[in-house]
Amino acid sequence: MIDQQLVQEHNERLVTGVEDDFAALSVKLARVGVDADAMVARAKGFAVALPSWGLGTGGTRFARFPGPGEPRNIFEKVSDCAVVHQLGAATPTISLHIPWDTPSDPSELLGFATERDMAFDAMNSNTFQDQLDQPHSYKYGSLSSADKGAREQAIAHNIEVIELGQKLGSSALTVWVGDGSNFPGQQDFTRTFERYLESTKSVYQALPDDWKMLLEHKIFEPAFYSTVIQDWGSSYLAATEIGQRCACLVDLGHHAPNVNIEMIVARLAQFGKLGGFHFNDSKYGDDDLDSGSINPYQLFLVFNELVNLEMSGRPFSPFYMLDQSHNVTDPIESLIYSAAEVQRAFVKASLIDREALAAFQDDNDPMMAQATLKAAYNLDVEPILQMARYQSGGAIDPVIAYRASGYRAQCGIDRPAAKTLSSGIV
Ligand code: LRH
Ligand code: MN
Ligand code: MN
């Protein structure tokens, strides 16, 4: 972890300016009946989970350019996550990917995380890759494979992930499969989906009563012609067939360009099947860029739906996770930044005058309806986020504090990387 003294000194240098900015914003918000302190409290209550796979440089299928001091195992990943949370104060949990993160001793891992005030969020299974010494290949699919052996192996893996998650205090399993086909005619759509449903139901039978199972859809990749759970429609059908504790997970990067994701969110929520999110941003496909870096307005509109849902008083507790990894930034900085962008969208969406919006909608006044959304979106809520971090013991400007700490350089010394030239596959 970073020396808390350093964080304090950083905050002391900035806090007067933040207090001034916050006071000015409070006056402005008070004019429209909003209590800025209540917004700080909301921001402090907001949390999004970190993806364990986002702490290293993800790269692309062409090349990976590892940075210095990247984590080499799950313990080092947890250490980095703890730093992200220490400074950004919005990410108290970690979503693990198995077998990438399988610990030899789960209780040791749990203890290590707890000592750093971190806990475990949804567990991710992985049947999109073959593992060493595994008897059946996933080359032609996993839960939906025509090969019964591959299906049974994938079911058993998912059940093992649940069992491990129970030891770590998790309460959800996220299932994303790359199953699909590259050529017309390669697979029978209906029979493939039937096999998927049958396998997934077997996994569901092993789901503890207080767990959720989240089905993550994705339009394409690695399959380039058809994917079994390609969109929210297939995901909804599957989740409905499978059972009450099964719901859909929306990864923002898993849709065709220009798809109205916020409307998908509303639909799933309306029918009780909105299970959770993988937040990231993209311009072309599943780009896994930092949240809010390309289309922050879309993120805000997603949170408009989520806050609306919360205000409606319906039971609602989706899992919020980041899912990003790429080539050009320090992953700790990117994760701090993304978490703050998601939190920003949440705060801005909380500022929408919902009564006015509903009235403009009922009056068929599109100009004023969209202006009501924009009034909240265009507000600079940075002082609220800064104040929330400050009050939570985080850093007012977490990326600056992180850079000043020299944490990465120290990791470069403590974590000597094996000397290999990483090659891309074109
Ligand atoms: C698939 C995906 C899914 C995986 C992760 C590594 O594209 O979004 O969530 O588990 O990437
Ligand atoms: Mn994802
Ligand atoms: Mn993805």
TrEMBL record:
<dbReference type="InterPro" id="IPR013451">
    <property type="entry name" value="L_rhamnose_iso"/>
</dbReference>
<protein>
    <submittedName>
        <fullName>L-rhamnose catabolism isomerase</fullName>
    </submittedName>
</protein>
<keyword id="KW-0413">Isomerase</keyword>
<keyword id="KW-0479">Metal-binding</keyword>
<dbReference type="GO" id="GO:0046872">
    <property type="term" value="F:metal ion binding"/>
</dbReference>
<dbReference type="InterPro" id="IPR036237">
    <property type="entry name" value="Xyl_isomerase-like_sf"/>
</dbReference>
<dbReference type="GO" id="GO:0016853">
    <property type="term" value="F:isomerase activity"/>
</dbReference>
<keyword id="KW-0464">Manganese</keyword>
<dbReference type="InterPro" id="IPR050337">
    <property type="entry name" value="L-rhamnose_isomerase"/>
</dbReference>
